[in-house]
Design a protein that fits this description.
- The chain has helices spanning 13-24, 31-41, 44-53, 61-72, 90-102, 117-126, 165-179, 181-187, 201-212, and strands at residues 2-6, 28-30, 81-84, 109-114, 127-130, 136-138, 157-158, 192-196.
- The protein has a domain at 2-115 and 178-215: Rossmann fold (3-Layer(aba) Sandwich).
- Strands 2-3-1-4-8 form a 5-stranded parallel β-sheet, sandwiched between helices.
- The protein is built from 9 helices and 8 strands.
Length: 218
């Protein structure tokens, strides 16, 4: 089962990817996570990416595609994968197609998390992240046992600058301009599947399960 999760920031892609990955026994491949891992590994691709990240610049598509290609070749991704946060543009989608074709693989489904702007702003405004390892909480729906403290590692929680309303609106504009064209790209390939992401975590998980359950290995 080879999946891509698309959707604006705050739509719940990461949470649902983690839950489905545990259920299906395949890895959740988050762009941010593998980028940090590649840089930490000191690989050629990681060193190239670090040149841009350290200067606060976007990592070029060719470098990101190379990092994704390396990750998809690791043993745990052979039964399948969930790409969370990649591709973000038509160029990256075309690069992913080429990588998978060389591996003799293809995408099975592209899930689009559909959600209103108002819900996104509320969710991200309520999101808190732990400083040590980035564990995510929500002051409405998933509070820590001790307010302001991560349940897992005890580090303090904080609100990221890019979760503030004015920044969220800018991030949504970038998403609409760069990433939304992917919807038509994948619709043309018969891979597109919309998912109502307005509800709670369990409700969305149930809807997602109904979309992908035929593809989960028994």
């Amino acid at each position: 089962m080879n999946l891509v999760f698309l959707g604006p920031p705050g739509a719940g892609k990461g949470t649902q990817a983690r839950l489905l990955a545990q259920r299906a026994g395949i890895p959740q491949i988050s762009t941010g996570d593998i980028l940090r891992a590649a840089i930490a590994s000191g690989s050629a691709q990681g060193q190239e990416a670090d040149r841009y990240v350290s200067q606060g610049e976007l990592v070029p598509d060719a470098v990101m595609i190379g990092i994704i290609a390396e990750r998809l070749q690791q043993p745990d991704a052979r039964p399948g994968f969930i790409l969370d946060g990649f591709p973000r543009s038509i160029a990256q989608a075309e690069g992913l197609e080429a990588v998978l074709a060389k591996m003799g693989r293809r995408l099975d489904q592209v899930i689009h998390f559909e959600i209103s702007e108002q819900t996104l702003i509320r969710r991200l405004g309520n999101r808190r992240v732990c400083r040590a390892h980035g564990h995510i909480y929500n002051v409405e729906s998933s509070q820590p046992r001790t307010p302001g403290v991560c349940d897992i590692d005890g580090s303090p929680l904080y609100m990221r600058d890019d979760d503030r309303p004015e920044t969220v609106l800018r991030r949504l504009q970038v998403y609409r301009e760069i990433t939304e064209p992917l919807l038509a790209f994948y619709q043309a390939r018969g891979l597109f599947a919309p998912l109502d992401a307005e509800g709670g975590v369990e409700q969305i998980a149930a809807a997602l399960a109904s979309l992908v359950s035929p593809r989960i290995p028994r």
